[in-house]
Amino acid sequence: MTVPTTPDSSAAAASPPGPPPDVTLPAALRITPDDEVRRVRLVQMKRVATLMLVVVAAVFVVARFFEARYPWLGYLRAFAEAAMVGGIADWFAVTALFRHPLGIPIPHTAIVPSRKDRIGAALGNFVQRNFLTRDVVAGKLAGMKLGERAAQWLARPENSRRLARAAAHGLSGAVGVMRDEDVQELVDRGIVSRLRRMQAAPLAAKTFELLTADGRHQALLDDALRLAARFLDENEAMIRERIKQESPWWVPGAVENRLGDKIVNGVESTLVAVAADPDHPLRRRYDEAVDRFVTNLRENPATMARAEQIKLDLLDHPGVAEFSREVWSDVKSRLATYAEKLAEETEAEPDQLERWLAGLGHKVLEDPALAEKVNGWVVELVTYSVEQAREEVATLIATTVAAWDADATSRKIELQIGRDLQFIRINGTLVGGLVGLLLYGVGKLLA
């Protein structure tokens, strides 16, 4: 029998090819210093596996040559022969993962380069189904208590100051580059147009229902009565003067004064009576008027149309656009002033925003129930975001791997796991030899 060739014997000392000169490779495929260390270790392990194959081949030749003189060498020859078969078979299997063995395009070899896209899609689906699930993410986040960690970070004055200043500078820069015309268009398209589509009457009816719940409208009436009483007290002289001006010339002054007393005292006594009596007839008529108005807003077409027209007239008024422009200008000015103030006062006392942020952190830490709610909100927010993006993440992984160079991808993966795969060759050599020895011994026993 001729001595078998060892596929790696001529190239064992050679290093795997280095990175291609194309510097446009993605960062994930470029050879790093750590990869260079892995390359050296891979070469060393390849030498060990190949050397074992060379050794068992030499043992096979020697045992075969002297077996006729020393029959016990048959056991050694059987071991070496099976070890060569196992070593070569496992060399073929490991090499076929990354390239064609001996450069021969044997079917179902060079698995990684030829099936790179399929591997990327499978990897994306694996991550999506086994890592980006609600149970996995929520379980991990619940133990991290991110809400409490954020509160602890925020409670430190230096952190609340840093966040406040970053927010101020960021908002100031953002509003600085936005054109007033774009903002006005956004307001018109996003707010005013939505208000135009919204029915005014049902909204007004709902508002009045909230105002009348639990007698809140009676409290408003009480406030109105107090304001009316104050107005009457502060303007009594004006009312009397108005009575004199409206009275005929022939009415005596004493009559005018008497008439003024009657009007002022009558209005005053009425206000006091209504304010003191929860069952006053005026209050009942007030209740009936409010209920009737709310019913009309919901059911009367004329009232609904009138409310809608009032809404449209208000939205079409030039003052609405002017108001939004003034609000936007004021916001820009305030943000710019605040950002400039923060830039100038590096060691200033904490401002209102900083104190609010720090106070929020302390409040969460001091209230376990609130901290638990915040943790729950964080978990819910993150898990919802992950659920919405899990398919996109799987697609991103698949498309990213598909865009990689096949040879560079194969080389990168081999550097990561190639050294461990060489143990397959070593184990295959040893296990194959032991199996061969066992079969030879069984054959001897049965002979």
How does the SSE layout of this entry go?
Blueprint: H1 33-66, H2 73-98, H3 111-114, H4 116-130, H5 134-144, H6 146-155, H7 157-177, H8 180-197, H9 200-212, H10 216-234, H11 236-246, H12 253-276, H13 281-299, H14 301-316, H15 318-344, H16 352-366, H17 368-403, H18 406-446
**Termini Cα gap:** 23 Å
Structural class: mainly alpha
Low-confidence stretches: 1-21
Classify the helix fraction into a percent range.
over 70%
Number of helices: 18
The radius of gyration over CA amounts to: 44 Å
Determine the mean pLDDT: 79
Shape: rod-shaped
From N to C, what is the helix and strand string?
HHHHHHHHHHHHHHHHHH
β-strand percent reads under 5%
**DSSP, total strands:** 0
For the largest beta-sheet, the strand count, sense and barrel status come to: none
Provide a concise account of the structure shown.
The protein is mostly helical.
Describe the structure.
- 81% of the residues lie in helices and 0% in strands.
- The protein is mostly helical and 447 residues long.
- Helix 6 (146-155) crosses helix 17 and helix 7 (157-177) crosses helix 16 (352-366).
- It is rod-shaped.
- The two termini are 23 Å apart.
